[in-house]
Amino acid sequence: GEAERRRAAGLARLPPLLGSDTDPRAIERARATLALAGIDGVELVRRDVGEASPPHRAASGLVATNAPYGHRIGDAESLRPVYRRLGEALKERFDGWSVALLTADASLAGELRLRASKRNALWNGAIRCELLQYRIGRGVLEALPL
Length: 146
Fold this sequence. Notes:
Elements: H1 2-12, E1 18-21, H2 24-37, E2 43-46, E3 62-65, H3 76-93, E4 98-103, H4 106-110, E5 118-124, E6 127-135
Parallel strand pairs: 1-2, 3-4
Antiparallel strand pairs: 4-6, 5-6
């Protein structure tokens, strides 16, 4: 009983959650996963990363992304524009937000044109990755040299 009360209290405190992907199958898998977890109220939309915007009425928060990094989807050259569009969207519309980016390709992460405040190495299965953390905001952004 206590566990159920704590779960309900935690769910009631969740901030607005928004997920997006260009692949409708990814959206459907996310919906199924959320339903299995008993989590309601997450808005899932089909949207290009360059169109990313915060959930309605959310002044700050966390953008967490496992953008493609050329192992299962795409290759480095085809993904560079995706990372550039993500970086532009973050700088344009996510002032005051934090970002967590999982990637296996540091050169792709460089396309964001942001400087990570923290880097953690980890493994995604057999793939060595980095979890890069950023803080978006005036006076915080530092463009990387070209």
